[in-house]
Amino acid sequence: MPRLSRYQLDIPFKDVLSFCSETQSKIDQDKPIYIDCRNPTQSISSREAWKLVRTLIAGFRHAGLKAGDCVCIHTFNFIHYPILVQAIIGAGGVFVGTNPAYTPTELRHALETSLAKFIITEPELLQNIKQPAVALGIPGECIFLTNHGDTNVQSTMRPWRTLLEHGKEDWSQFDDEETSKTTNAMLLFSSGTTGLPKATQISHYNLVAQHILVHENPQHPERYPVSRIMSLPMFHAAAAPYTHLSSLRAGYPVFVMRRFELSFYLSSIERFGITSLMMVPPMVTAVIAYSSSGPDLRAQVRRHLQSVRSVIVGAAPLSKETQAKMQTLLPEQSPITQVWAMSETSCIASCTYWPEFEHTGSVGRFLPGIDAKVVDESGSEVPDGMRGELCVRGPTITRGYVNNPEARARDWDQDGYFHTGDIVYQDQSTELWYVVDRKKELIKVRGFQVSPAEIEAALVSHPLVQDVAVIGVDGGEDGELPRAYVIRKDNTLSESDLKVWSAERLAKYKWLTGGVKFVDQIPRNASGKILKNLLREQARTLGSHKL
User: Fold this and answer.
1) Do 158 and 120 form a contact (C-beta atoms < 8 A)?
2) How remote is the C-alpha of 436 from its chain's centroid?
3) Nearest-CA neighbor of 532 among 197, 192, 193, 195?
4) Which of the 8 DSSP states describes residue 307?
5) 272, 229 Cβ separation under 8 angstroms
6) What pLDDT, on the 0 to 100 scale, is given for residue 362?
7) Is 107 helix (H, G, I), strand (E, B) or coil?
8) What pLDDT shows up at residue 264?
9) Which is nearest to 424 in space by CA: 375, 471, 378?
């Protein structure tokens, strides 16, 4: 039987900005909500945020943005990033964020899939995105530059602040079920096993539901002042809902790091008295390793973390052993717990609510309103407590992907459940959920999802590659590493040749850090599907690092 949610929370059908605005009389309007970690004098209060949002809405509309138009932000983190996102949504547009590490090939796919009409980028990233933008017919006047990063790069593109020169306008408002559920606010790219990343449609309703279920559950009220340091990239599903919606509605201060730097991250937690951390496993292992690298460093790390009340880890599995090590660095009453989240679930779908400790390696329990079932390969439900593929439905679940009806038909069943590809089981005594494997073949590299098919497509385009299969191999606490099994046409082709080839076409986290193994054949079944389970078993048997 499906594990139906035992209780529901009311989710309003308002647009995102109307939802955020209704709490403003209850919070300190002059308290900063976005603060630059490097230079905390650079900050934006709630009052300033709303003024900027209205001004940027007018600017985007003056620039020609129409309802449903997509705006791509291709930058590292900065304090105006969430303001731009809120204004894009408020103007009736759709936000899409891209990874600053993307190559022109990857950016072309993102721009083409999202049908982006406008781009906001920074000088040092302009070269990579300008090439596909020109190829796709995005005019120069629709590309705006921030003044962050390397500002010595010369460009004729307009500064983003020219969008502030056209007065103020209110946001597009609605309060009905159909509009809230069918109007996109964001596109979050989710990797797939059968091709390039898919643009996941996140509606206004999805985002409002995500905030309410995580932060406004009356059975689990937040009992301490929440402040968070944001070092995760703001385009990522793990960061986007909290940064771009929750902080504006609830007045949570967000201390913004351009990108993650371990020592600065730790010192900033202490300096600003950060209470809530959202981490991915490589960040956790980096903190643990640093604390063990010198006689006085453990005490130093514990001092840095004294203000922390809660640590949440997501985006990839974390071993319970590593979780336990991190727990010893935290204050006694401050738990570290894991969540289960996907782009398709608008971020968090299961968690352990504070102040409960959970040390068995589970991902907690599902949020209110999230129904779950576990099925076998035929789609039939498995007995309670047995392993199978997790399927979910509920208010935070996307309705599908942009221009990809095939994936929609494949991944959703007739009862409205999204088939996640994760293999799970539920402990019947505690009702905790455990993720044990993946049916889908995504590789989790430092918190990012990597599609083997995307790497395979890049490698097979090499003139000396006959066939290729890519799997993830164990990279220790850093997660998985992409490894390629290659049939070459000519023995002159070397591992270094392929690594250079892939590096020119793929972002760094997709590089072949798990190595290249040249083989005479790649195992396939009768229909031609690569039997990657055999390759993974071989890698486990021989040891991930033995080629």
Assistant:
1) no
2) 20
3) 193
4) T
5) yes
6) 96
7) helix
8) 98
9) 375
Q: Which residue is associated with the tokens 């929440």?
A: 226
Report pLDDT for 115.
97
Please name the residue that has the structure tokens 């098919």: 453
Short-list 454, 427, 445, 455, CA closest to 516: 455
pLDDT of residue 542: 75
Q: Are strands 94-97 and 184-190 parallel, antiparallel or unpaired?
A: parallel
Q: Judge contact between 248 and 28, C-beta under 8 A.
A: no
pLDDT in tens, 320-375: 888 999 999 999 999 999 999 999 999 999 999 999 999 999 999 999 999 999 99
CB crowding 226-248: b at 16 or more within 10 Å, else e? bbbbbbbbbbbbbbbbbbbbbbb
Amino acid letter, residue 217: N
DSSP three-state, residue 232: coil
**Residue type at 505 in one-letter notation:** R
Tokens of 455: 């790497």
Which are the contacts of 377, defined by CB distance < 8 A and separation ≥ 6?
389
* Percentages (nearest 5) of helix, strand, coil residues in the chain: 35, 25, 45
Please enumerate in sequence order all residues whose Cβ is within 8 A of that of 26, keeping only pairs 6 or more positions apart, or say none.
none
Position 193 scores a pLDDT of 45
Count of Cβ atoms closer than 10 Å to residue 359 Cβ: 12
Range list of H helices, 260-376 = 262-272, 281-291, 297-304, 320-327
Query: Which H helix or E strand runs over 467?
Result: strand 465-474
Domains and CATH numbers, the chain: 368-438 (2.30.38.10), 443-542 (3.30.300.30)
Distances (CA, A) of 310 to 187, 223, 347, 356: 29, 11, 18, 10
Burial of 529 (0-12, 13-18, 19+ CB in 10 A): exposed
Residue 411 φ then ψ, to 5°: -95, -5
Task: Please tell me the predicted confidence (pLDDT) of residue 222.
Answer: 87
How many Cβ atoms sit within 10 Å of the Cβ of residue 499?
Answer: 16
Instruction: Evaluate the omega torsion of the peptide bond into residue 139 and state whether it is cis, within 30 degrees of 0.
Output: no
- In the block, tokens 């097979």 appear at 460
Helices (H) and strands (E) in the chain, counts: 17, 26
Q: Are strands 340-342 and 347-351 parallel, antiparallel or unpaired?
A: antiparallel
Q: Which residues of the chain have pLDDT under 70?
A: 149-155, 191-195, 440, 478, 525-529, 543-547
Q: Which two tokens stand for residue 298?
A: 């453990």
Listed residue (436, 406, 439) closest to 421, CA to CA: 439
Helix residue ranges per DSSP H, 306-444:
320-327, 405-411
Sheet hosting strand 388-393, strand order edge to edge: 371-375, 388-393, 418-426, 433-438
